[in-house]
Amino acid sequence: MKNYLIMTSSTSNMLKGDNLLKENSINTVLVPAPKEYGSVCAIAIRVSEQDLEKSKELLKSHDVNVEGIYEDLHEKLDNIVKKLKDKHISLEFKEITKSIEEGKELAYEDVLYLLKTDRPAEQEALFELADEMRKKVVGDVVDIRGAIEFSNYCIKDCNYCGLRKDNLELERYRMSEDEILEIVNDIKNMGLKTVILQSGEDPHYTKEIMGNILKRIKNETGLKITLSIGERELEEYEYFKSCGADNYLLKIETTNKAIFDEIHPDGDMENRLKCIQKIKSLGYLNGNGAIIGLPMQKEEDIAKDIMFFKDMGINMIGIGPFVPAKNTPYENLPHGDVRMTLKAVAVTRLVCQRVFIPATTALLTVDRSAQAKALISGANSLMLVNTPETYRENYVIYSNKSEVGLDYAIESIKEAGRKLPLYLTKSKEV
């Protein structure tokens, strides 16, 4: 059965329309929209063909401003099968490639094959396919965002994270509202359009305190705001949205419950999923992601993670290797495999298509060339670390974290043969 995408004139219209349709027993899914129907990462309401006419009538009768309705088609890559004819690849890989060329959605078994293949020709072809898909759906410009790690206090005790509450060796810090705003203004002066506010799960920053920070950032700079502050009460997500938050990043990290429970001894996977659903229902651009190389993790788990991102209609997907942190139960474990991480990035681009995928800092920490490799394997964004040096060394989710400054980001983008964003002030000088 066909599905259709309903594009509205604004986020408020989209939320009003989505709630209206749900109240009338119409099954809807909020998904990233094709760039030709709106900006990259715009959100569309997806409905089935059988519900389309009823949806149109309801939206019209309740004055929801609809800008367009389009069939939900999977992107195609033309003539890619011919390009692979001289490569040493299997019949199964050729069949998967044919599905991509014809615009068919990849099945779980296809995803698993791509993750498991150890044939050099197939791996390189995978990266090429993902890079072509990236070029088609989001273009050549690499989006750059600035991050402020404003607190390293955390009430959780995750086994992999250096911020865990039982790490008594860590010197803790909290940034004041004025300190945060000073760095936000520095980010604006670079020309960047989005600031990421990231912290441990720190209850010191109450709903009211965070709300004031968000309002000041919006009123004083107009920047888009991504929050990454963990699990909160559901009404807090709604309040943060009303105060100016645009995006929310809350990673599932793994969809395997046994692994989730192992790495989060005081965590609750059901609550994490409820939070992710609530964030999505409020119209946030929804950020999520996975860690590659966790204890007990297999390719099957990574494949299920990728299918989860597709089914959830996630807008931003961060995939990085596990990197051990000192003073944690996992400090002596090996880091995640870079090649598997790059394969996961590439497959995610082919499966989820119209999304932002960062070349993560964790990749850079493990391999100095890996960020540029990710940018030619499906990734299309970079995150700068703008945390003041006074605090930076104590924000240790993992140890020996590489710092991504503006100069290094520009170097990585050029190395990958990609384009700098026009909004970047410094790009006018290079």
From TrEMBL:
Highest taxon in the source lineage: Bacteria
Positions of the Radical SAM core domain: 140-360
Gene3D superfamilies attached to this UniProt entry: Aldolase class I
This protein's record includes keyword Metal-binding: yes
InterPro entries to which the protein is assigned, alphabetical: Aldolase_TIM (IPR013785), BATS_dom (IPR010722), Elp3/MiaA/NifB-like_rSAM (IPR006638), FeFe-hyd_HydE_rSAM (IPR024021), HydE/PylB-like (IPR034422), rSAM (IPR007197), rSAM_sf (IPR058240), Se/S_carrier-like (IPR021778)
Gene Ontology molecular-function annotations: biotin synthase activity
Short name of any one Pfam family annotated for the protein: Radical_SAM
Keyword entries, A-Z: 4Fe-4S, Iron, Iron-sulfur, Metal-binding, S-adenosyl-L-methionine, Transferase
Species of the source: Acetoanaerobium pronyense
Protein name: Biotin synthase
Entry EC no(s): 2.8.1.6
Cofactors named for this entry: [2Fe-2S] cluster; [4Fe-4S] cluster
